[in-house]
């Protein structure tokens, strides 16, 4: 107990002597781990959006109309038999094992949906129901099986085209994953800077107290007694920086994602501060482990005991 109290007193003394360097370590650790926290939040959000959108991923089977291209619909507009054949496949045929549910959208319903979503468009006044294709909108048990369903209906009689939202979603997710990667790269660079700064701080502290450590060696102090305060100094600065990063991560999740973006984009379920509590212990652990390693290796090299 006395040893621990002694090392803590020495740590506080060293912190007072190196206020500027310790503050630098705290700030660099704070910035670097905030990037780590932001990247983790972004990846959590991407995973949540992926799950939400995959649950609602539709495969749309568009049927031929009178105005369909000859190459896509060589037999002309879809017939009643062809329509019933597609529906039969969805209910009891080859596609039924993949289908969770489906709905039929008539030309009139398609026109109504088009006008609702494009009421300000210049085309809205010139489009009528005959221009809109009938379609079957299909939800799958496993969204990843959409290529199988697409292949089943792509060449079916009366089908003009089969479309799904996967390509659009993949583009969105690739952008979000790219942003996550950029944040992680910046975080990695900043963490390296933080480790080097911790090492430099400990080295300068050891140099400024070389006379004291020399005396301690002469009176028989153990290696851990001499090195301990320097390691504590590095860990203290890094952990304080990580706690600030935890606060910033919580604020990003609560105010940026949980409140502001939720209001701006109501159709997407955003994460909130509850998700940040999973990330925060990891930030503290990263800071503590890196600080212990950097401090211990530095005192072993520059503090001969």
TrEMBL record:
Positions of the FtsX extracellular domain: 57-162
Quaternary structure, from the entry: Forms a membrane-associated complex with FtsE.
Lineage top rank: taxon = Bacteria
* Protein's job: Part of the ABC transporter FtsEX involved in cellular division.
Cell division as UniProt keyword: yes
Q: What's the protein's topology in the membrane?
A: Multi-pass membrane protein
- Which organism was this protein described from? Nesterenkonia lacusekhoensis
Q: Where found in the cell? A: Cell membrane
Say yes or no: keyword Cell membrane present. yes
Transmembrane annotation, as ranges: 21-42, 175-202, 230-257, 277-299
What are the ABC3 transporter permease C-terminal domain coordinates in residue numbering? 185-303
Q: What is its main location?
A: membrane
> What family is reported?
Belongs to the ABC-4 integral membrane protein family. FtsX subfamily.
State what protein this is by name. Answer: Cell division protein FtsX
Q: Name one GO biological process term.
A: cell division
Check the record and name the PANTHER family matching this protein: CELL DIVISION PROTEIN FTSX
> In this record, what's one Pfam family?
FtsX
